[in-house]
Amino acid sequence: MEGVNLKFENPIGDAITRVRFSPRSNNLLISSWDSSLRLYDVDSSVLRLEAPTEAALFDCCFQNEKVAFTADSDCLLRRYDLHSGVHDVMGNHDDLATCVEYSDETCQVITAGWDKKIMSWDARMAKALGYSKVLAAEVDSMSLSGLNLMVAVGASVNLYDLRNLDKPFQAKESCMNNRIRCLRPTPNSTGFAVGSVDGRVALEFPFSSNSVDMGYIFRCHPKLKDSRYHLVSVNDIVFNPFVCSIFFTGDNEGYVTTWDARGRRRLFELPRYPNSVASLAYNHEGGILAVASSHTYQEANEIEVPPQVIIHKIDESYIRSVSAGKRK
Q1: More confident site: 4 or 174
Q2: Beta carbons of 270 and 259 less than 8 angstroms apart
Q3: For residue 150, what are the contacts with CB-CB under 8 A and spacing of at least 6?
Q4: pLDDT tens-digit profile of 54-76?
Q5: Average pLDDT over residues 22-39
Q6: Has this prediction a pTM greater than 0.85?
Q7: What is the strand order of the sheet 288-293 is part of?
Q8: Beta pairing, strands 76-81 & 87-92
Q9: Residue 137: CB partners within 8 Å, gap ≥ 6?
């Protein structure tokens, strides 16, 4: 599964923070510390848009094929016209804005930041703050699945219903002793996975009625020769949209590993990348995996190799055969 590097006339100048495929096409959104939002047409291998701003972009998401949002280091929530590159300010936090999600069901843009706030905005209006809630600590990661908003705070995950953000309908300790680095939903909306800064992954299924869906936790790396664990941050997790038990993790040492959630085992590893794996994205058809290889500013001794985005064609039949224990 050798990958293909996306080509940029103007290389990405600083750390990549997020890559996201459109829900309905193979257009890839890329946010980074170099203050530009990029839209790449993976099918045609063409950069469709590079929209510069005045701040580092910490997160990004699509509203649709025409509109996207970013959460930025100058505390602002920006909205972009993906045809013209024109952007406007939709709202702001009181400190760094770090997470952004969009809900088709409610037309809400949901943001979180270092000001310990979750905020929601009505995307149908120019500047319409619908809700603001103060939490006990900064939000480390946030994800959305249908009407379920999942928020990682410290080592806990709070679950909210978008129709009632006053209080979480479930507050769950994730069994992690260390801070959660990433939080991602399962494709069938039955649960979520969290990755920690110490190299562990926990899977939880709070929305499942199936007794088989038992949560569990595991370490991504085996013990070293001195019996100590190799502590490497899990920076991102992404699930195959159709083979729901299959997911990928990307870590701070440049490894992308494939796991079988049902079988509770490691399947295979992609070739190591020259830098940390900062972000992962699956396309809507489940046949393409985008990997952002980039420094992440987590370690003092990170090698600042120029950021890259690598595209892998994922053979679903191969994944199924490996999961069943039959390699081609």
Answers
A1: 4
A2: no
A3: 142, 143, 144, 157, 158, 159, 160, 183, 185, 192
A4: 999 999 999 999 999 999 999 99
A5: 97
A6: yes
A7: 4-5, 308-313, 288-293, 277-282
A8: antiparallel
A9: 116, 153, 154
As a whole number of angstroms, the distance between CA 106 and CA 233 comes to 34
Residue 322: pLDDT band (50, 70, 90) is confident
161: Cα within 13 Å, side-chain hemisphere = 5
Position of tokens 């900064």?
A: 138
What count of other Cβ atoms lies within 10 Å of the Cβ of residue 303? Answer: 10
* Neighbouring residues of 110: CB distance < 8 A, sequence distance ≥ 6: 100, 101, 102, 103, 118, 119, 120, 121, 142, 144, 149, 162
Residue with tokens 């440049």: 254
Q: How many Cα atoms sit within 13 Å of 37 on the Cβ side?
A: 30
CA dist 314 → 40, 248, 290, 311, 319 (Å): 19, 12, 10, 9, 8
The tally of CA atoms less than 13 A away on the side-chain side of residue 216 is 12
Q: Assign 298 a pLDDT band (cuts: 50, 70, 90).
A: confident
What is the rounded distance in angstroms from the CA atom of residue 47 to the CA atom of residue 12? 12
Could you tell me the two tokens for 318?
């191969």
Pair 274, 293: CB distance under 8 Å: yes
Average pLDDT of the chain is: 90
* Residue type at 187 in one-letter notation: P
Place of tokens 């923070």: 17
Q: What are phi and psi of 144, to 5 degrees?
A: -130, 135
Please determine, for residue 197, whether its predicted confidence score (pLDDT) is greater than 50: yes
Contact present, 109 and 80 (Cβ < 8 Å): no
120-139 pLDDT, tens digit each: 999 998 777 888 999 989 99
Cβ–Cβ < 8 Å for 294, 251: no
Angle 51-53-58 from CA coordinates, rounded to 5°:
95
- Pair of tokens at residue 226: 């001195």
- Cα distance between residue 248 and residue 196, in whole Å: 14
CA distance 267 to 131: 43
